[in-house]
Amino acid sequence: MKKKARIIPRKLPTQDRSKQLVDSLLSATAKILVRLGYEGLTTNRVAEEAGVSVGSLYQYFPNKESLIAALIQRWSDGVMETIAGQYLEVRHESIETAVETLVSAALDSTKIDVKLHRILMQQLPHVDAMPALELFNRRMTERVAGWLEVHRQELEVEDLHLAAEIVVMTLSGLSDYALVQRPELLDSPSFVQHLSRLVLGYLAPTRASQLYAPKRRRNSKRAAQTQS
């Protein structure tokens, strides 16, 4: 059985100078991944790209796997910051408006450094990155669960935490699919509408049926009301 690579940093930076060094190493890692892929990534190349000695790199990172894991963590922190800001803007809007913003935020976060994001998705099998990903998903689930709690009276689901987890997994999976297989969907208003309909149909099916009723049915209903 192949031994798993160590992905935990040897130490964390505490001073500004060391934080700048680690940031330079991670930025160099991102550039090399995009340019050469996982197989082309080496600690020597990262050190050279960052303009530091490989010994300085090894003070913090034992191998390239730990660099990638740290890069994933930095990326997920950026995604959380982007999404958190958009959630706050619609915290007290209607569920219909909030869902569409939630979906748009998920797609916007997927477009943060698209080339790097796509490479990270493709390189995850090489790295035991589950701890970082699990933490990211937990943070996202807690954020969405808090948002659902505000809209509890509009929803038709009971277990809000489980509902939040399902929404996060659904949007994450479909966003990643679009990133890798259909990148044009990330800028498609139609894709946003379909995902919004999917999420709203799960959380509040009655409202979704009213909002997304086929035009023929809505026109027939309007005609019947006029005749009466």
Question: What would you say this structure looks like, in words?
Answer:
It is a single chain. The chain has 228 residues and is an all-alpha fold. It has helices at 16-40, 43-50, 54-58, 64-89, 95-110, 114-123, 130-150, 160-181, 189-203, 205-211, 215-227. α1 crosses α2 (43-50), α1 crosses α6 and α9 packs antiparallel against α10.
Poorly predicted runs: none
User: How many H/I helices?
Assistant: 11
The assigned structural class equals: mainly alpha
Helix content: over 70%
Major β-sheet, in short?
none
The average pLDDT value, as a whole number, equals: 83
Cα-atom Rg, whole angstroms?
A: 22 Å
Report the strand count: 0
**How far is the first residue's CA from the last residue's CA?**
75 Å
Strand content: under 5%
Overall shape: elongated
Q: What is the N-to-C order of secondary-structure elements (H for helix, E for strand)?
A: HHHHHHHHHHH
List the helices and strands and how they pair.
Elements: H1 16-40, H2 43-50, H3 54-58, H4 64-89, H5 95-110, H6 114-123, H7 130-150, H8 160-181, H9 189-203, H10 205-211, H11 215-227
Helix pairs in contact: 1-2, 1-4, 1-6, 4-5, 4-7, 5-8, 5-9, 7-8, 9-10
Comma- or semicolon-separated keywords:
mainly alpha
